[in-house]
Amino acid sequence: VFTDPILMCGPIVAEYLSVPSVYFLRGFPCGMDYKATRCPEPPSYVPRFFLNHSDSMTFTQRLKNVLVHLLELVYCKPVFAPFEELAYELLQKKVTATDLLSQGAVWLMRYDFVFEFPRPVMPNMVFIGGINCHQKK
Fold it and tell me: Which Pfam families match (predicted)?
């Protein structure tokens, strides 16, 4: 199943049919793409997506980064709860959104380290940056 996993329907269908899934995405809220692939992402070193910090942060920026990471644990759970309920109804087993995403065979990431900060990635994460990049006028 070739899908953008943001709405979680593709991962649920792939799990239901027991077929591999290929994800095509720009970024995932709450860093779930890195949790699902089990990438190391220490919050004191890897900046959160919307904070606009660089990879060399001051102590206060690191502290803010850790606090935002902790808040994500609270406000991201209700976002994916409806999809977890749908998966439970269809699959007849209790699964989390992270469990569903962790079944991805290949992650085609639509960004590159030219535009982002470097971070550790797993071997099944392929960067195909430049697909949606337009030159500024």
Answer: UDPGT (PF00201)
Q: Using CA atoms, how far apart are residues 54 and 46, in angstroms rounded to an integer?
A: 9
Residue 16 lies in a domain: yes
Handedness of CA 132, 39, 6, 21 (dihedral sign): positive
> How many structural domains comprise the chain?
1
Note the pTM of the prediction, 2 decimals: 0.79
Cβ within 8 Å of residue 26, ≥6 positions away: 109, 110, 111, 132
Residue 68 counted as domain residue: yes
- Would 136 be classed as within a structural domain? no
User: Quick one: how far is CA 114 from the chain centroid?
Assistant: 19
For tokens 């890897």, the residue is 46
- Residue 18 inside a domain? The answer is yes
- In the structure, what pLDDT confidence band is assigned to residue 133 with cuts at 50, 70 and 90? low
Q: Quick: pLDDT tens for 102-116.
A: 989 999 988 776 766
- Altogether, the residues listed in the chain come to a count of 137
